[in-house]
Amino acid sequence: MDYAITGWPSIPFIAKGKVAAHTYEFGDFVNDLPLFCTNCTASQNAGNNLGAVAAEAARSAIRQALKTWP
User: Fold this and answer.
1) What is the pTM of this model?
2) 40: which DSSP letter?
3) What are phi and psi of 5, to 5 degrees?
């Protein structure tokens, strides 16, 4: 089984006293994941884990943005 996730979030920063959105691209995938079922717990966990990895990748950009807010 192959899974992929991509996105293009816009995160607001404060720059020179004004809100400025910075956009980021992300993506991750898993290829040839051996699963012996299509709608079972193992399949659902694989999809959930990939989503968690993508969310974790955004953590540093979100942290940087939060530091610019008063």
Assistant:
1) 0.64
2) S
3) -140, 135
**Length of the chain in residues, anyone?**
70
What is the enclosing helix (H) or strand (E) of 48? helix 41-68
Half-sphere exposure of 30 (CA within 13 A, CB side): 15
Pairing of strands 18-23, 10-15: antiparallel
Residue corresponding to tokens 């399949």: 43
The average pLDDT across 58-68 equals: 91
The structural domains of the chain, with segments of one domain joined by +, span: 3-68
Q: In 3D, which of 68, 69, 64, 58 has the Cα closest to residue 27?
A: 58
Residues paired with 30 in a beta bridge: 3
- Average pLDDT for residues 36-49, to the nearest whole number? 80
φ and ψ at residue 29, rounded to 5 degrees: -155, 160
